[in-house]
Amino acid sequence: MESTFRSGLGNHYCALRHGQSEANTAGVIVSKPARGVAAFGLSEEGRRQVQASAAAARLPRQQVQVHSSDFLRARQTAELLAEYWQLQRPVQYTELLRERDFGELDGAADSNYARVWALDADNADHKTFGVESVNQVRQRALQLLAQIEQQCSGQTIILVAHGDLLQILQTWFAGQPAARHRSLPHLGTAELRPLNPR
Asked: How far is 198 from 186, CA to CA, in rounded Å?
């Protein structure tokens, strides 16, 4: 079922990871909406990264739609992109692209990511530390794709989101198990990458 959906996509998708954020520079995990929606936006370097990425992109801009996480760092990234490209369509914000919930590790040092990723590789359904499982993250991202596919076709869809969510979504486009998300090429901050179905 998923492979049929993947091969029949009517739109072209790209991932855009948010630019360097205040959470990145502080070295902390910010994954709860209570903090991430209102605070921890882009750093000055993050803004420069997004503008550089927007300037370097070679995409048709007449049929572009931007869908973004509602976390502040992603919203600011999407707004900078839309402004630079002078897009006519407003950015569409969605909870479905939010950061992966890292449970009790929220607010802890970002070195704790590695502890979760090691467990991910063994079990895509694990919820150790109260984290959102890899499969849960992938399913909510795919929920958004299904909605977009029902609404339009022939568009370039930019998904502005977070490192873990986009890493996990990449596995679906690559036809890989979600547990392998850390084995795929990592998205740098403000990196814009095509998501090509395989």
From this structure: 18
Greatest Cα pair distance in the chain: 44
Model pTM score: 0.95
- Write the Ramachandran bin of 175: left for phi over 0, alpha for psi from -120 to 50, otherwise beta: left
pLDDT at 111: 98
Calculate the average pLDDT of the chain. Answer: 95
Domains, the chain, with CATH or none: 2-195 (3.40.50.1240)
The CA distance from 69 to 46, in Å, is 16
Torsion of CA 8, 139, 38, 110, to 10 degrees: -110
Residue 193, beta-bridge partner list: 15
Q: What would you report as the CA-atom Rg of the chain, rounded to the nearest whole angstrom?
A: 16
Instruction: Kindly list the strands in the beta sheet with 64-69, ordered across the sheet, starting from the edge strand earlier in the chain.
Output: 92-94, 64-69, 156-161, 12-17, 192-195
Query: pLDDT tens-digit profile of 166-179?
Result: 999 999 999 999 99
